[in-house]
Design goal:
Blueprint (H helix, E strand, L loop, with lengths): L1 H19 L8 H12 L10 H13 L6 H11 L1 H20 L6 E8 L6 E10 H72 L5 H35 L27 H11 L1 H20 L9 E8 L5 E8 L9 H66 L5 H36 L42
């Protein structure tokens, strides 16, 4: 009886702690939802079989009834992605680790029966023990698990934000590909018409065989260019379809037919401000800070307790051969002769130093990525503006002038077809530059953790093309010795 009372006194707190431990539903997801909303403006949903799941399914169905914009494609992907549903479970795993850290190890019951050899009777030894280290280290283990849960929130947020950026990039790739395919069909139509005309002229004996062969070469190349453009368009569409989690009838979704024009204003010129914002908003750095905290917590556990692993405390009761009982506490401590915990402490210290070094390395990388993304954004913007201000108007004027000369019978129809093909080729180049701009903008916004804020309008009058940043591309420097750079007259 005394053994049972002592056992109850020692282990009652452990039983109460175990009874209070529980697993909350969708732990930490509110923090993830809030952070994702701040960075992307999008909603996220963790399916749980609740009525909200039906509302999300209805929202997805409603989005699929109309051509998707880039924002709508991203929103659909975040709501419909099974991949993200799997990522969210990392929060439950981290929460389970936190609950586990707050639990004592189960007590261990042991018993022995001894039979008399030189004397009659039976001896009995009973004991109940509890791991001693789990009692002392529980507060430290809980703080470590809490840090790991916070790190899991950052990782999950990062996965969602990465998904949003990847879907947006895939959307721009697909829409640009569809536009290029459309233009290649126009080129093929012009090449076919020019080739048919050349065959008729050749049949009348008014053009050499070489001219006909050249026209056919253009026609055959146009067919190859269209086939490649359609292949790239379909691949981009399938990639985006998979990223949005669509299949079956849902795979017939539609997108907007054109890429949006570049905005009138861009904040890409202030590289220092972009670099500062990137460092402040970086989820990579936030995760690195959490990893340093986790490593520091682990070091805090390993330093005071490494040699205590296997220590036990409890109660024991013995009955001797003559039937007399004895009851008392039981304590088992390892003797730190061979292992004093140097390896465990050294490993934890190395991981802390490693996490610190990785943080500084990531900080340098984030700064570099931000600067590079700003450079690409500004460069792609200038290319788009050059197409708009110089190349497209020039090709249009060439077509108009060639049309006038053709109407006056001053140039052959082949020259007019060629001018129109060159105009369509310029349009395809413009679409490519516009795609590059939106990809660069998406990547920079991803690095900055949110949309780019347009700078304040300048006080000076706007340029004639309505853009605020650098003018169209200038001519390259003269490669001859002493050559000078000539600015574009446009």
């Amino acid at each position: 009886m005394s053994a049972r009372r002592l056992s109850a006194a020692v282990f009652a707190p452990a039983v109460l702690l175990g009874a209070c431990a529980s697993m909350p539903s969708q732990p930490g997801f509110d923090d993830v939802r809030r952070s994702v909303g701040e960075r992307t403006g999008m909603r996220v949903h963790w399916s749980s079989g609740a009525p909200e799941d039906r509302a999300v399914a209805d929202a997805i169905g409603e989005l699929l009834t109309r051509p998707l914009s880039a924002d709508e494609a991203v929103q659909l992907a975040l709501l419909n992605s099974r991949e993200l549903q799997a990522v969210y479970e990392e929060l439950s795993i981290a929460q389970a680790d936190l609950v586990q850290a707050g639990l004592l190890r189960n007590p261990v019951f042991g018993g022995e029966v001894r039979f008399g050899v030189n004397a009659a009777g039976t001896g009995v030894a009973l004991d109940v023990t509890q791991d001693f280290l789990s009692i002392l280290s529980m507060p430290l283990r809980k703080r470590l698990a809490e840090s790991q849960l916070e790190a899991a929130k950052v990782r999950v947020t990062g996965a969602v934000v990465d998904k949003a950026a990847a879907v947006r990039e895939a959307y721009y790739e697909y829409v640009a590909g569809a536009q290029v395919s459309e233009m290649r069909r126009t080129v093929l139509g012009a090449a076919r018409a020019s080739y048919e005309l050349a065959k008729r002229v050749r049949a009348a004996g008014n053009t050499p065989e070489l001219a006909l062969s050249l026209e056919r070469d253009d026609f055959e190349q146009a067919k190859l260019d269209l086939a490649l453009a359609e292949e790239q368009e379909l691949i981009a569409r399938e990639r985006l379809t998979g990223m949005m989690g669509l299949w079956g009838g849902q795979a017939a979704w539609r997108a907007e037919p054109r890429l949006p024009p570049i905005p009138a204003l861009d904040p890409g010129g202030d590289v220092q401000a972009i670099e500062r914002r990137a460092v402040e908003a970086s989820l990579d750095l936030a995760l690195a800070r959490r990893e340093i905290e986790v490593a520091a917590r682990a070091l805090g556990i390993s330093r005071p307790f490494p040699w205590l692993d296997g220590a036990e405390v409890g109660a024991a009761a013995d009955r001797e051969l003559d039937g007399a009982w004895s009851v008392g506490p039981r304590l088992a401590l390892p003797i730190p002769l061979l292992d004093q915990g140097q390896a465990a402490s050294g490993r934890a210290g190395a991981r802390l130093r490693q996490a610190s070094a990785e943080y500084h390395a990531r900080a340098v990388e984030v700064r570099s990525r931000a600067r590079a993304a700003a450079i690409v954004l500004n460069s792609s913007r200038r290319r788009v503006m050059h197409y708009e201000a110089v190349v497209l108007p020039l090709r249009e004027r060439i077509v108009q002038e060639t049309q006038l000369q053709y109407n006056a019978m001053q140039v052959p129809a082949f020259q007019l077809f060629d001018a129109k093909r060159r105009q369509v080729d310029a349009g395809a180049g413009y679409v490519g530059a516009l795609r590059d701009y939106w990809l660069a903008r998406t990547r920079l916004e991803h690095i900055l953790g949110g949309p780019l804020a347009a700078p304040e309008q300048p006080a000076a009058p706007a340029q004639s093309n309505g853009r605020d940043s650098a003018p169209p591309l200038s001519d390259p420097p003269d490669s001859r010795p002493g050559g000078r750079t000539h600015e574009s007259p446009e």
